[in-house]
Specification:
Two copies of one chain form a homodimer.
Chain A lengths: L1 H6 L5 H14 L7 H13 L2 H9 L3 H10 L2 H11 L7 H4 L2 H9 L3 H9 L3 H8 L4 H8 L4 H11 L6 H4 L6 E3 L4 H10 L10 E5 L5 E6 H5 L18 E2 L4 H11 L3 E5 L5 E6 H19 L11 H27 L2 H6 L2 H29 L5 H34 L2 H31 L4 H28 L2
Parallel strand pairs in A: 1-2, 4-5
Antiparallel strand pairs in A: 2-3, 5-6
Chain lengths: 475, 475
């Protein structure tokens, strides 16, 4: 405490801003504290509307989104229905998309139209595209003509495409202009310009992109310089129909900050900036983790019944896998009756196979998503995983063979579990890498079904090899 | 083919660029094709050095990084040792960090120093920080004094901190300047400026940040306007010691494109831009997926033995879990001997618990990482997961109870497996959400150890409830 005071002797206005931010960070993090959330909930429940509206209007969009995500469903609906105008309208672009849909669906079309009117066209599309078509229609007809046309055009592009992601406001300058003329234009046209931009696009009279000029390049050039001498021709024009996942990969790969979006005739129709892409990168990475775990997007915010039913499907497929494995065990019922130690040990073989396979699978799924794995190195990766499986299989076979032999005083049992372990870990490596690669090549998403298929393999191979060898050598 | 030709009647120079990019995208994607990789490998093996150098120098940094990631280890070392100067030096910033370390370690300190000299200071730090300390030292002493000092200062910040991420070149302007004076300064100082910048920082004489001005705001203002009227005071100064994960969260949360980095005295010392942060976001998301799967960063590129040994540890911990579960089964050896159906069915109970628990766990781990889960909603999430577990537990209990009763013609067995299933899925929900939340509160990384702990719970509870109930009601 003391050290802090000495470090900051004068509390000038501009410094205050900095100080607050740093202190915030030194504690549990930034954003809303749990205490602030509780305060707002209290104000809501006790009907202190003035205090509530005041507290809400003070929140930035991200903080308000955090608040709405963390309160109960009833409180959220109450907050939005009674106090929608107090919220920063951008709060809805910061929220989980499912939660945003549910929240806005509780409002009247008039209220939603009022919120959307205050947003940029790309944010407006992000929000409206998640609503029910009938509700969308109703809202759109309450908007100004300009925004209505912009939204209708935006919605005509495929979902999750560059066309939906792009901002329709951009700065395009003819290639024969000079730096001076461009700056004068920017100063005069200040109302027609997008709120934020990083580059100006240089175009031909037919709106084809010649190249782009980052603002810092423009601002440090003399007024007499012609734009054509500044243009970076290394642009990456993005067709409006490109999938947003590809857009994100392109930005990441080429370290872009913005890119022009073009229509079928290759004419400039919009711009995608990196801040839009960060959300996509985040979303895609999140989707993969959730898919691997067998859950859908937005699960955290779904109501109990929706969560239950959406998870049921994945669990049901897993049940079929488990029953299949049980059938395999059932084939050896007589053997187990004679040597009950088999029943005790068999889950170890299956579980080690499952875990080793999951390691290989995770690496492969991730590498496929990041485009680090393709035809040219696929065979090498599968081969590597098979060798790794063999090596770790041998190591664990030795460990588990000795444990089993000592535990049950039966060295043949030790040899049987050791052999089964090696066999199952080899299969785990081979299929752990192979299944996602094959699914990917067949055009399926490897994150969704790889895990179930792999578990089937490691369970069946594990039980079959262990109990099969036992039936031959032990009984 | 025909449609394409008609659509683009004249092949003007500026349009060509666009055309190439779009065609590339319409095929399997962008970047290197497998055929191009094979061509380069062929040239390498047959010693066509001219063709090789030509092909390599044509590659952008990202493409070259893809090439080096996909060729064999021997080819990679050969390419780098014999042809390092032909590569775009930024290739090393685009590579997986482990692979980059291995590749550079194969070169002499002189060659590495030559590569590093061509990079920006932040890229140079990214690369050099991964090398062995002794090798780092050797390289640093071959660099120019300026770069050496910059690197030594950068390396004095903690690993994965804002200080390592930041760029040391930035534009800082006194607050009493006008727009015109600033533009004149930028035009004159063109050599001292960073290669790219999006904002200028407005500072006090003591280098404290007053605020920032995005370039587009500067360029559209009249020359006579004073900077203090343009300054956005809503800056987010980042202490140089802040963890890069927090930096990424701040950028994402506040939709920043750049932020000033400050030292202990709160003086401006650098700037972090969004393109640096995109890599961090990517990396962090990737780390979580890999940790949940029980593998480390860079696993894809590790040699077989390193991969084997790094995965061994995780598998070993899982072996202990599996042995613990076996002990539980061992307690009921006599029961299993009497009713072999128990051995056949018991993996189903454990496996369903494991899968249901993993669903809850994945959602919780992800929500913790995204800061969507904290004290204020933790109890509600745990409670929700427990209810979801109860509901799905009841559903699967009914299904599996009927199957078991029919399969073995024993309705008590059906009732036993049904009860065990409900019990295990309730525990799965409770612990699936609870374990990551508790680990997080204890300051551990929930992505690393949650899975093992959860499997222990669902295995032990599954076997114990199923076999225990069977011992009471069936024998």
């Amino acid at each position: 405490m003391e050290a802090e005071t000495t470090r900051r002797p004068e509390k000038e206005a501009p410094d205050k801003n900095i100080k607050d931010d740093t202190t915030e960070f030194n504690e549990s993090g930034y954003g809303l504290t749990d205490a602030e959330i509780l305060d707002i909930e209290d104000a809501l429940h006790s009907g202190y509307d003035d205090a509530l509206v005041h507290a809400i209007s003070d929140l930035g969009a991200a903080d308000a989104a955090e608040l709405l995500a963390k309160v109960t469903d009833e409180d959220r609906i109450k907050l939005i229905q009674d106090h929608a105008p107090a919220f920063n309208p951008e709060v809805f672009t910061e929220m989980d998309s499912g939660l945003c849909r549910d929240s806005l669906s509780a409002l009247s079309a008039d209220k939603v139209a009022a919120i959307i009117s205050e947003l940029d066209s790309d944010d407006a599309i992000t929000i409206i595209q998640n609503l029910e078509p009938a509700f969308q229609h109703e809202i759109i007809h309450k908007l100004s003509v300009n925004l209505r046309v912009a939204l209708q055009e935006g919605l005509s592009f495929p979902e999750e495409s560059a066309g939906r992601l792009m901002q329709r406001e951009f700065v395009a300058i003819p290639q024969f202009w000079t730096v001076g003329k461009t700056i004068d234009y920017l100063r005069a046209a200040t109302n027609d310009l997008p709120e934020e931009f990083f580059d100006v696009f240089v175009i031909t009279p037919s709106y084809h992109v010649v190249g782009e000029i980052p603002l810092n390049r423009l601002i440090r050039s003399m007024r007499s310089v012609k734009l054509e001498h500044l243009v970076l021709e290394d642009t990456h024009p993005i067709p409006a129909t490109m999938d947003q996942e590809h857009v994100a990969q392109l930005f990441r790969r080429e370290n872009l900050t913005s890119a022009p979006v073009i229509d079928e005739e290759e004419r400039l129709i919009g711009v995608i900036t990196i801040d839009d892409v960060v959300d996509v990168i985040d979303e895609e990475a999140q989707e993969d983790i959730l898919k691997l775990g067998g859950v859908g997007k937005g699960d955290l915010y779904h109501a109990v019944l929706l969560t239950t039913s959406s998870r049921f499907r994945w669990l049901f497929i897993n049940l079929l896998t488990a029953i299949l494995a049980s059938f395999v065990i059932g084939l050896f019922g007589a053997t187990i009756e004679q040597v009950v130690a088999l029943a005790i040990l068999m889950p170890i073989v299956a579980s080690m196979g499952g875990n080793a396979g999951t390691q290989a699978l995770t690496v492969a799924v991730r590498a496929l998503a990041m485009r680090e794995l393709s035809r040219s190195n696929a065979m090498r990766i599968i081969w590597k995983e098979t060798i790794v499986g063999t090596l770790n299989g041998t190591a664990f076979a030795t460990i588990m063979g000795i444990i089993a032999a000592l535990w049950f005083g039966n060295s043949i049992l030790g040899a049987v579990i050791a052999s089964a372990m090696v066999i199952n870990l080899i299969f785990a490596g081979l299929f752990g890498a192979g299944i996602p690669i094959i699914l990917h090549r067949m055009g399926s998403d490897p994150a969704i079904s790889s895990t179930v298929l792999l578990t089937t393999v490691t369970d069946v191979v594990g039980f079959l090899s262990f109990l099969g060898l036992a039936a031959i050598f032990l009984v």
